[in-house]
Amino acid sequence: MELIVALLVGFFAGAGIYRLLSGGKMDIFIGLILLGQAANLTIFVGGGLRHNAPALLPKGETINPTDFSDPVPQALVLTAIVIGFGILAFLLTLLLRTEDK
Amino acid sequence: MDSLFWLLSLPLGLSVLVALGRPVVRRFPIPVGLFLALSFWLGAVLLLIWIPTGTTKAFSAPWVPELVNFSLRLDAFNAWFGVLILGIGGCIMLYAATYFANEKRLPFLLSTLLVFSTAMLGVIWADDLFLLFLFWEGTSISSFLLVGFSHHQEEARAKASQALIVTLLGGAGMLAGFLLLSQSLGTSSLTALLSLTDPLPSSPTLTAAILLIILGALTKSAQFPFHFWLPNAMAGPTPVSAFLHSATMVKAGVFLLATLAPALSQHPVWTPILASSGFLTVLIAVLRAAREQDLKQILASTTLAALGFLTLLAGLGTQAALLGFVIFLTSHALYKAPLFLSAGNLEKRFGTRNLNQLHGALRGRPSLTSLAVLVSTFSLLGFAPLPGFLGKEYLLKATWAYSPVLAILVGLAAAGTLALGLRILIPLLSKTDPASPKKAVPLPMGLSALLPALGALALTISLPAANHQFLGPAAEALGAALEASYKLWHGWTPALIIGLSALALSFGIAKVMRLRSDQPLPSLFAPRLDQGYDQGIKSLLIGSKKIANYLTSGSLVWHLAIMLLGIGLLTAFSLNVFSIPALELTLTEHSYGLLVLVPVLILSLRAAAVARETTAILVSLGFVGLLVAIFFLWFSAPDLALTQLLAETLLLFLVAVVLHKRNDPDKVRNPVAPRLIMAVGGGAVVSFLILKAMLVEWDPPVSTFHLTKSLPEAYGANAVNVILVDFRALDTFGEILVLGIAALAATSALGAARPRHRLPGTNSTPWLKGGGTVICWLLIPVAGWIFWRGHNAPGGGFISALVAALAFGLALLNGLSISHPSLLRRLSFRLISGGLLVAFLSALSPLLVSQPFFKGLWYHRGDLHLGTPLIFDLGVFLTVLGFTLAFLRHFHPRPLPS
After folding, report:
1. Among all residues of chain A, which has the CA nearest to that of B688?
2. Is the pLDDT of residue B630 over 60?
3. Which of B606, B626, B703 is most worth mutating to test chain A (most A CB atoms within 10 A of its CB)?
4. Are B74 and B58 in contact (CB under 8 A)?
5. How far apart are CA B315 and CA B469, in angstroms?
6. What is the pTM of this model?
7. Nearest residue to B721 via CA among A74, A11, A66
8. What is this model's ipTM?
9. Main-chain dihedrals φ then ψ at residue A70, nearest 5 degrees
């Protein structure tokens, strides 16, 4: 399973790079969207994958850390998504400015 | 103890006061200058009272554990140096305030001088090597600002940056040296280094460390071959030159050398390098000044020469040499500062600094300036019983004790510097062609020029007492013999003989200089190093430009391709791409979700990679975003899924507007084959990276701490949210700061007066208009609910802010009044600044109850827990919302009312 996911994220990055090098300004932007998501996925996947084990701790019981997925990469990726959105929005405003000229 | 810290931060506090009270400083410059001078003198007096007590003081506060401690030390020597700095600094403050009384930027000058004073005091009082480095660089930067004060003149800028670059290069080398030294020593504490009983074992590391530290000191004190920046730094205003380049900053280098000399001078490279560098500097300084007519330049050369002698003494490192070091340092500071200040006074009085036009300037009515010049020049010439005589005597004594040949050479060099002193004095006293005064010199300027000279006289008069109380303990603390002291008369020692003959010789040299004063110097002595520096900088700039042109060649895509290639190759090689990890293809029951997800994702990605038309782009990007969210959800990250969905929606909203505006898609298309190769290569590198990362196992992983402590100690069941707002809140604070900066940058890029971008006509359908408004108003309480539940269930500040932003976006589409651009603009900035302030205050609040910064304070009521992390989350919410609004406001559906 890990192999499939790794290849998938690699394909993601490849699609982003392909678009990035296509030549137009909007292409660069779309390529960056895809690359950004690929990067987030890289961090997330690199931390290990578990299904159906969110980091929501039940009250009252003793907690066995191996029962849950790793919350640290998730926290890192969450801020990465928001900041990525911020940077892309900023890039978009710059693109708009060059368009207006 | 603490008083040392307060004394160090006194100038810094005054600097903040000056910066805050700019109008007051501009209206009452001289009283402000007097106030600053009195504060400095108070500090100097406090130190003076303390020195005879014979104790040492230390102050230590932990800063970065096991790396740097904020530790200060005070012994008799650096307290005495502190007295000199504060005493002369006070005179400078008064002088500068009067000199620039009508200058608009006087507050800037004064606060930078004050910051510089703190940095200089920090250099001499620091006990930790890295703390010393920090203050060292602080002096470099503040001196850059001071020398380049007239920054509208290109010459001032160039000379200031030359000084900065040379001293920064030296400082970087010195840092490396400190690192190596602290490795050999095992600690970075200076006290530990100085209290070693056996010298450090010689090793290549130690040699390298010493060479690098010497590099730093030589650049700072303008010794050969880095001497060329000091005369150029005279481009700064006179008070700056008087403070920095005579009494304080350039002395930092020789101070460091003298402090380290007891510990390091036995090392074979120490004495040869320093002695030769110092000696050569003296010769070069004398030769440079031989043809100079500008008074300030001659004084700069005498400073260079004095620093050369001090370097020589620090290089010798013997007890006699360190004894001479203290008195030479003191006497030089006490005569050089008044000379510089008097040069400024003469310039004000006669309108010129050129010696040819200043004949007989000291004749006529005796003034404060003329008294200062006379006393200081006689001290420079080494007339007994002034301190300059003592300095010369002990210099020659120390060198004679080391080697008689060296003493004779030093005597010859000293004759040259004395000749420079005569070169200044004789024209100022001559009767031919007298200069006529133009303006009067204000009293404070004359007074502040005279005071250090009066200090020199006071030292002379009270020599026995001063010896016992101040100078002797200072020399002893540096490393000279126990119970050291200074005597005026030792009998007919070789030192005295050499000194007297040097004085006699100097008259001859001065005569030769005057006779030959209109002939140019032989080309052997041309300032080649200065030109070499200029040439070096120029070729560096030309070379970089050539490389940049070659690499970028105008096309952005080419630039991107090279960057990607570089990153990819670097990653591939550092991953050791040639060892393929063992691959297993195990399918568990969880994989069946993937079997659906993966093909759809691949198809959408392919569509996104090649789509041309607007609709295709939007749909494929939207699909990709949705599938990534489902991916997150499948692999147990509900918070991430929510964030991804919301961020993707907002981004596509903005993209849709832009795409709609564009009428013609780009025609240019790069060839497919290279793109495909780069894409496949990049994808392969990323896959490898992931596979390798998955193989790394930390034992135990960091998350064990977070998972086990999240509920009991941070009262949150949602571990991800707890990490964001509690355990790693400092990272999150930095991140929302980045968002604030991006919003500011976007606003300045787009500007406020640009026409709004029209959205396509969307408010026509009644469904959208009616339903949209309802959803818009519903989203706000939903955002509040998501915010509230975030600590124990998926949600939190980021997600709720994005939901609220979506509400605003919908309002924009429907043309609701809340989405008016000016309203959004004001709202967005208030939200961003308010959010950052709330977050920062929630981090500071534990300090009020003596808890560490960012610790969570909680209030419990049964099952309800309220705490500062929730307030921090509120700050995050406000900032992210404001940030999104700052972008949304540029899109408006209808033209603005006129």
Report:
1. A6
2. yes
3. B703
4. yes
5. 27
6. 0.72
7. A74
8. 0.96
9. -75, 115
